[in-house]
Amino acid sequence: MSPIDFNAISDDQLLTLVKEENHLAFQQIYNRYWEKLYGNAYNVLNDKSLSEDVLHDVFLDIWLRRDEIQIQNLYGYLFKAVRNNSLLKIRNEKFVAFNLSMIDQLEQIPEIELHLNQKELKSTIDKEIEKLPARCRDIFYMSRYQDYSISEIAAHFNISHRTVENQLHLALKHLRASLGATLFILLFS
Questions:
Q1: Which terminus of the chain is less hemmed in, N or C, by CB atoms within 10 Å?
Q2: Burial class (CB in 10 A: 0-12, 13-18, 19+), 139
Q3: Closest among 27, 10, 8, 9 to 18, alpha carbons compared
């Protein structure tokens, strides 16, 4: 049997080989599309590191879900996945920047500083985190306190990236709502 010329076979054939855990076929898909996809991600993010992260996440997801994923048009699928992940990165970066600016503003309000020192705030945050469901709490801790990436958390729990993102969103929504109420009481009581 002669070796396969991966350069000469179609995307559909490569995907079939990837489903059979053929690493060389997966590498061919990566080599075939990474440059165009990186350019697309960079055009959205304007950041080399974030663009590389997006490509890593997209290709890792394809490999991890190779048994269940149904792709009709490989380039279209990859382009859309890179675009969506890039936009998700922007949203997450904006959220982090928003939270940091909100914390900076809180530090500048003397009334809050008088009533709520860092220890009390940490205690309040810890109490609110404990109210989260166990899986949601574990995902939040891994993400925020242990600096695990979404991909690493998904692999650890054997769940999808989307599930991890949803759990983080729920945890942050809960904390925003409960800490907002605490700060409201301090400011207006």
A1: N
A2: buried
A3: 27
